[in-house]
Amino acid sequence: MQSANMNVMIKAARKAGRSLIKDFREVENLQVSVKGAGDFVSRADREAERIIKDELRNARPNYGWLGEETGAEDGEDPTRRWIVDPLDGTTNFLHGLPHWAVSIALEHKGEIVAGVIFDAAKDELYTAEKGNGAWMNGQRLRVSGRRQMIEAIFATGIPFGGRSTLPATLRDLGALMPFCAGVRRFGAAALDLAYVAAGRYDGYWERGISTWDVAAGIILVREAGGFVESIRGDGPVQDARNIVCGNTALFSEFAGIIRARD
Ligand code: IPD
Description:
Pfam families: Inositol_P. By secondary structure, this protein is α+β, with helices and mostly antiparallel strands. It has helices at 4-28, 34-59, 90-94, 166-176, 189-197, 211-223, 251-259, and strands at residues 63-67, 71-73, 77-88, 101-108, 111-119, 124-129, 134-136, 139-140, 153-156, 182-184, 203-207, 227-229, 242-246. A hairpin with a 2-residue loop joins β7 (134-136) and β8 (139-140). The termini are far apart.
């Protein structure tokens, strides 16, 4: 049984997804000049966050809030907060690449208890609630059963624009590549996590990531039977700014390789 909160989250994600898809078609059809595309996408992003905030705030006015565009706001209920990335994969969106998503999570007492990720371009809706499993369009998700590193595919985000986490990520890649079947960088962290939950990737790690990028995906992977931790293994993962996750069989070997470089 889906909770009332989950219904609210799904409604908000679908509504924002519809708004974003309209804007995305304009980007795809190049009705937006390359010069104006950045501003156009920021407007699309802000509008999606407004839609989500209205829906969630109307339904649960006392919860706190953390959104990529509008920042943090305390709620009357200090134990619960929504964590929202209205458009994860902004750069893909800007370039007309159909790999981006809406991400909405609910945190209770420092733990993510529900998550929705909506890949509107592919019409894939990922949902998970604590104790109720992970799902995509009504189909139960399980992490992959792969047991050999050499058969495994991992995903990451490669820090751009001179970020300080780039050298460590390049060292991670150097250490991991000889032992696995490949590393992907598709450009939307929420979907990287959803794909681990769906068994498409065998693991994912990233350095220098934000709370809203990973919050919903954390519960998806956990409810699909995988492991999710911060690279240093301390505190709530969603606030750690780095993450490593994977299927049951390979997690410790994979995380060991990443942690050896920390
Ligand atoms: C970004 C994407 C990307 C990840 C970056 C994030 P945004 O989120 O998730 O995959 O590598 O670290 O900032 O900016 O598109 O919401």
